Amino acid sequence: MTSRIPSAETVLRVVSIQRFSLQDGPGIRTTVFLQGCPLHCPWCANPESRPLHPVQRHSVGKCSRCLRCAAVCPEGCIQPGPDGFPSFDRKSCIGCGTCEKTCPGGAISVSGKPMTVREIMETVGRDTDYYRNSGGGVTFSGGEPLLQPEGLMDLLEAAKDQGIDTAIETCGNVPTERILQAAPLTGLFLFDIKHDDPVVLKKVTGGDADLIFRNLAALSGTGRKVIARVPCIPGFNLEENVLRDIYTRIAACGIGTVRLLPYHTYGVDKYRELSLPYTFPRKGIGNEDLEAFVQMGRRMGLDVQPW
Amino acid sequence: MAIFNIETAQNVEISKKIPCEKPLLEQLEIMERYTSVYKARLGSSKEMREAACLEVLYPTLFRHIQDQDLIAGRLDFLPIGFGCVTSLGGVGHYCVFRKLKAFRAQLPEEERHRVDTLYRYWEDHDLKTTYNKETLREGVLGMFIDTEYPMIATARLSGMMLDYPTLLSLGIGGLRERIAGRLREDPGNEFLQAGLLCLDIFVRSAEALKQDALSQRAAATPERAAELARMAEVLEKIKEDAPSTFPEALQLLWLYALLAGVINYGRLDDFLGPFLANDLASGALTEQEAYRYVKSLWTLIENRRTTVNGRIIVGGRGRKHPKEADIFLHIAMKVARDCRYVEPQFTLRLDKDTSEEIWDEALDALGAGATYPTLYNDDVEVPAVAYGMRIDEKAAEQYVPFGCTEFVIQGQSTGTPNICINLLKILTIYMNGGVDPEDGIRKDGGVPIKPLSEYRTFEEFYDGYKKLLDFYLDLSAQAQYHSYEVMNREVAFLFTSLLMDDCIARGKALLDGGVRYLGGTNETYGNINASDSLLAVKTLVFDRKKYTLEQVGAAMLANFEGYEALRADCLRCDKYGNDLDTADSMADDLYRFVAKGVRDRGIAVGMQYFLIVISNNQLNTEWGLKTGASPDGRLRGMYMNPANNPQGGADKNGPTAMLNSLTRFDARYHAGSVQNIKFTPGMFNRHRDVIKSLFKTYFARGGCHLMVTVVDHGVLEDAVKHPENYPNLIVRVSGFSAVFVDLSPEIQQELLSRVLYDEQNSLR
After folding, report:
1. Residue A151's domain is classified under what CATH number?
2. Whether residues A131 and A102 fall in one domain
3. Who's near B676: CB < 8 A, 6+ residues apart?
4. Is residue A40, in this structure, part of any structural domain at all?
5. pLDDT for res B88
6. Would the pTM of this model clear 0.90, i.e. be above it?
7. Nearest CA of chain A to the CA of B655: how many Å?
8. B762·A24 Cβ contact <8 A
9. pLDDT tier at B738, thresholds 50, 70, 90
10. Reported ipTM exceeds the 0.90 cut
11. Nearest-CB residue to A264 (from B572, B761, B763)
12. How many CB pairs below 8 Å do chains A and B form together?
């Protein structure tokens, strides 16, 4: 990979591009959500971004059961299903978006459509001066952006060429060399840490805690700006001893800035649209619920705030 | 001539007027007296007739000074009288027939015949009715505000902002001397003679108010008695002398504005700042007292209840006393934030050098939900105004927005919008062979229109629409110009003319050749629905060939019933407001055609300028109710897009994308373009730095203007259900602010349809 020549024609699978995004780094940003994630966190607000391949979301409330989608799908992966609603073979979707374009009620949206670096940067580049004046930039998120390493490197190169600051949101569960390769072109890493216990993490999310902390340490060694972000999930990690251990591990990696993300449930509807079960509580928490954990982190010498 | 109903409401009236203080029979007597003086003076010059009629009205129509007033002067209006604008009384020698009829209903039975006599007389003499008789055309040009028509016209003199600096430096005595001096050179000039009579009216009015102030002292608290005594002294002083203190300057300006019937006030910071600075420096006023004076002015303006006017402008280029002006500006910002009135329409002009302090004050007021100040970007507007109005940049620096947003040059130009045109309705007529699908009436003005089956290319189709627009644009320039001719035939607008360049020097009333720049404006509606519709036709019919033009036409006539899939395709076509070159370029192309077309025609007809304003009151909703379904997917009767914002809900890419689309229109071809944006308090107040850089970047990119509403999720929805809980909820409708619960259900729905930017737009 090291000798690749950056190309604007590299194709990536894209969940969506969110402009005027304020949650994914400082200032005014555009966030490019890329398809595919190595983890399957059951609270994830973007479950459509998990598979590497495209998937169709289907909103029953907007569906008139006209089945035009089934008629037009070139891959035959939409069929009449129970109660007259379409049924989706989500593994076979190629992300052409024909069903989405055809549906009269707007009930279908396809996640993971292919876009070239040029196409992505055409949208990102439209707000360049907003980024500059607000200390913002582009954030590559997902999914896990480092699952599409070639495309991501090309995006980072293109952003650099256009003078746009970059950030990456990562779960850290990727080969270390990918992170190190991206580091020189990345202004800020938002590095998610979910649990310190390898067994629990593996069981709930499929993640490899040792790899993740190794990557955090390696990244810390590059001197790039890194913020460790901890999604605070009741029933998973929102306990004093778990947070303490997480803080300890983060500090041991040489990272001093931690942001806590309160659990929310804005993604619940998407599970229904993907025919997936949602197993976590239906009620989010607020910054006030994090106060004790913030204080604990500060006592440990970390810069901790709610995100 | 078109048949029209003279009792049609002639303007937008959301704010409820304060009823006349005088008993009904006294009101009737005043109207009778006015009518008989008018009749007796029919043989006189228009100037002398006007002065004589004004003598009937003033000081008679002044209300009593109210307890909280620190400045004297409140006026009543009767259904018959004299005025400049439709929102206060009427235009010229007017009769508002609808209100006269309502007045009649309140009278005892035996007195009603007196009203009938007046009604019949004014049917032949009301200025606006005269204009309507001469100008309106069946099927194509209706009266204000008859939304059955694709274009409407009126005669009025809106948006005058007077040369107050001259008034404040000369005083009434100095002005009198200037007029008298000209009269010595031009004896017999009746404009100048009548002007002197007006100054006498001013003096008598000041005297009457002074007597009122003095007579109220006895029953007042010692504190209030002292205020009244001071008020009386001020009124005595300004009868002749130039003002030397802030209260005197304020009083002079206010009383003159009332008598002139003007409802926009201009760059008060620059005129009043030096007086204020002096008084603060000398200790004559404390800052707290200054605040109270400014607040009193705010209250008096609010109480005039013009709905869409009451502009006070601060900041910006071309101020003569920027340092002193900023002192006024800072106090005014606090007053605007604290009062949260719908008027005055407090306006901040800014540029790249505007201080952070002023930015912060403005954002604080907006963040508190005041909807003020509205923001205008001088870096764009000044050169644009210079080009659009064909004046130099120095003169353009004195541009001021009035009403919903239209610009005039303070003390130098007229800019009244006497025409409104509905571009979308014209498109629906065009696509139905020249017949309005709403009522089956032919409204093509004789322009030949081909059947939909005969268009082979999009360009051909678009050209046909442009030909029909050409007909309307021609008519708009003629109708605007004729409004000036009719007004000039009947009236001189004396008080206004005396403070407009170059009326005294030329010895002529402003519409008689007196005003330096005779300009005008044309309000366009449905711009974005029309351009989005054109793009949908281009995309679906000519590019993708998914439907025929006849199918689209049939779907429109059926209000898309039975054409749901076609409508879904229409809705899915690219829409303006998303920073997409397809939709934004189409919008820009139509904008250029209309804006340049209007401008060129204005110049040809002999005006200094005639420019479109993409302003908006609530007419986008009301006209939408009478406009057929359109190819952008909009249903029949649905509101149209507000000003040059996207159709409510059509913009899905967030505020930067929406603002980028807004910057597409070249500001040189319009005289104001209303641009609204709506945030939740959480978004606006917790991310203040982001908001500030959003606005600043937008302006640096060529954005000309912003009107900002800050309101929380669910609040407007709840206010629809429980209006009683929201008596003070202020929203920006478009070119004006209003108490939300005073708006009609349709307008409330249009406001709800607009995108509200919040913090929850990107979540992992």
Report:
1. 3.20.20.70
2. no
3. B642, B643, B645, B706, B707, B708, B709, B732, B734, B754
4. yes
5. 87
6. yes
7. 7
8. yes
9. confident
10. yes
11. B763
12. 81
